[in-house]
Specification:
The complex is a heterodimer. By secondary structure, chain A is α/β, with parallel strands linked by helices. Chain A has twelve helices and five strands. Chain A is 37% helix and 11% strand. Chain B has two domains: 228 residues, no CATH class; 131 residues, no CATH class. Classes of the chains: A alpha/beta, B alpha+beta.
Chain lengths: 260, 375
């Protein structure tokens, strides 16, 4: 039997910091196995050698912030069989979605000497608002094991094991005592999706919500408890306005406290 | 001799640990770690939380210094012994591709032989409850059974109660009555620091042969009894269990469920810290080349959407339905399923709920509403 052709993988960058693409290069021990299982056909951060599309799997990093990118993502979708978005920018608009709460024209006039050279959109939006996305992988940055799991699942035609429950389950499985209960440290873990391995609470810090809202998040109840712990309203707004500020449940929660 | 009571001086306590180590036990006991009492491996008496205590309230836990050097002067830690008998993550088997077929390799790792030091009566009852779940003859979990068979239990009777304790209501404490190899009551007074030790099994008696002991005098036994009685009188919580099954079954539709759902985070903390909650999920994973697969069991919770996912969607989509499922299973349908309550009154779900939801308060609200209706 002739050896099956290796699936072609492309990695695309939109408005982002490159951290999620780096997670793929950070695979180190597993990188050779990945390179063996797939053909890295387009990955400018790793190699300028480009193999023409179409591609079996496209990993898309970054959000859509310019008219040019809004067109480019359509082209990426056309040449991709499976399109997987990776990271908070691609799945929720990223930290740059903070512009969505303000007037971007005002920023441009303050920051740039020649604002007329800047062509940007009013909002930073996730990829799924522009094209059909086959799978969204959360995180800022994505977790390398979850990234491998998703690639692995697509290669083996199975559902990825990427749960959408809270960070609390990961804390409990690794044996970290709850930082909110034992230390009074405000933590976004109970409303944030698992995936990072509950790193911050293991170092006595509250969760920053890097993986975005979990399934059915009760942000209002958590906020009310944070207020009891002494968190000010403006700090609640800031807490929900992190890397996933524009993910709907976080956005609504921050807006609820901004209005008060 | 089984049933006998003896004394161990605090200064000889290390000898008990030594005897267990010599017998090849992996000795697990309370330690101070990450701002909490955590059960983990201990080498010497110095690893125990000497002079520490814990404060429990709904959604709040703090370690505090005691004004004595008690070894067991705390109530319960966030994690029960469940994590040793029923590990949070366990590989069940692996499969290797062999030509056109595949070969299954079961997990035959020999589990460690544990000695648990400081098992509270409520925790002992939690182990009995999990025994009914996992080793009921009909559906036995071999992984649980292999660990359970080999454990040596040193129970510690509670001489103080925590702010969220209600073992008296659940009839599970504060005194350990059965199921231990040795049961200690720690007594500290002006001159002495010692333990009244009750021998529960031959295995326990055998270990004690390696430890200097004295016969317990009636006075010592009386003192131990009084201290335990004191704990019983200071329960932080109460739960009226009168006809509780019928009460909850009658009120599966009740506005209180909607109310608690506004507070419940569905974060699953209560189920993770509960010493009897036993739900897991299995995940099948593959390697990149598709030549190896593995089935892994992980702790799961009835508070996740995936837990009740069947064809077409999740059965319990709302927080209300998930909280109701958990509470009514724990306190009502558990009785039909396993013949006992699923709650031992340890109070962990109250203390470790990040927003302080109190199971005793929820039941009280429902009971009270019925009384109000009849008045």
């Amino acid at each position: 039997m002739p050896k099956a052709k290796k699936p072609k993988v492309a990695v695309w960058k939109f408005a982002s910091c490159d951290g999620c693409q780096l997670s793929l290069l950070d695979c180190e021990d597993e990188l050779l196995a990945v390179a063996d299982a797939v053909e890295i056909a387009y990955f400018l951060e790793a190699s300028r050698a480009v193999v023409k599309g179409p591609y079996d799997i496209s990993l898309v990093e970054g959000s859509i912030t310019t008219p040019h990118d809004a067109e480019r993502i359509q082209e990426v979708r056309r040449v991709s069989k499976f399109l997987i978005t990776i990271g908070a920018c691609a799945t929720a608009g990223g930290i740059q979605a903070l512009r969505n709460f303000k007037d971007v024209k005002e920023f441009i006039s303050i920051v740039y000497a020649r604002p007329e050279y800047i062509s940007t959109l009013e909002k930073s939006t996730p990829i799924a608002e522009h094209v059909k996305v086959d799978f969204e992988l959360r995180g800022c940055p994505v977790n390398k094991y979850q990234l491998l799991e998703v690639i692995n699942a697509f290669l083996n035609r199975r559902k990825p094991n990427v749960p959408s429950y809270s960070v609390c389950l990961e804390c409990k499985r690794r044996g970290t005592p709850c930082v909110m209960v034992a230390r009074g440290t405000p933590c976004l873990g109970p409303v944030t999706q698992a995936g990072c391995g509950a790193i911050c609470p293991a170092y006595h810090r509250g969760c920053y919500g890097c993986f975005g809202p979990k399934e059915t998040p009760n942000t209002a109840s958590l906020s009310a408890w944070w207020r009891k712990l002494g968190v000010q309203e403006q700090d609640l707004v800031r807490a929900f306005r992190g890397f996933n500020a524009y993910a709907e449940p976080f956005r609504k929660e921050s807006e609820a406290y901004e209005q008060q | 001799m089984v049933g006998e009571q003896v004394l161990i001086e605090r200064t000889d306590f290390q000898r008990l640990l030594d005897a267990l180590h010599q017998r090849g036990y992996n000795v697990i006991g309370p330690t101070v770690h990450d701002g909490a009492i955590i059960y983990s491996e201990i080498a010497s008496v110095e690893d125990l939380p000497i002079g520490w205590t814990d404060e429990h309230e709904a959604g709040r836990y703090r370690l505090k210094r005691r004004n004595d050097q008690a070894l067991f002067g705390y109530v319960v830690g966030p994690y029960s012994w469940k994590k040793f008998l029923y590990p949070p993550v366990l590989s069940l088997w692996k499969a290797k591709k062999t030509g056109k077929s595949f070969e299954v390799v079961p997990n035959t790792d020999e589990p460690p032989q544990y000695a648990f030091i400081g098992v509270r009566s409520c925790e002992l009852h939690a182990i009995f409850i999990q025994d009914r779940v996992f080793t009921n003859g009909k559906f036995t979990d071999p992984h649980y059974q292999a660990r359970r068979q080999k454990i040596f239990i040193v129970a510690v009777n509670c001489v103080q109660a925590g702010g969220t304790c209600f073992c008296v209501s659940m009839k599970t404490g504060p005194k350990a009555t059965v199921g231990f190899d040795l049961a200690l009551t720690e007594i500290i007074d002006d001159q002495r620091h010692y333990f009244v030790v009750e021998v529960g099994t031959e295995k326990g008696a055998e270990i004690l042969q390696k430890v200097p002991t004295k016969r317990a005098q009636p006075d010592d036994i009386q003192t131990a009894k009084e201290r335990i009685a004191q704990a019983a009188q200071h329960m932080g919580r109460q739960l009226d269990t009168t006809n509780i099954k019928e009460l909850l079954y009658r009120n599966l539709e009740h506005p209180r469920w909607d109310e608690v759902a506004t507070r419940c985070l569905t974060c699953a903390n209560c189920t993770m810290v509960c010493p009897t909650c036993f739900c897991t999920t299995v995940e099948d994973v593959t390697d990149l080349t598709g030549t190896e697969a593995e089935r892994v069991r992980r702790w799961d919770s009835c508070f996740t959407l995936d837990f009740s996912y069947i064809h077409g969607g999740s059965v319990r989509a709302s927080a209300k339905s998930r909280y109701r499922q958990w509470l009514t299973h724990k306190l009502a349908s558990w009785i039909d399923q396993f013949g006992t309550s699923g709650c031992v009154g340890c109070g962990r779900c109250i203390t470790w709920c990040p927003v302080g939801i109190d199971i005793t308060e929820e039941v009280r609200a429902i009971r009270q509403s019925e009384l109000n209706r009849t008045q």
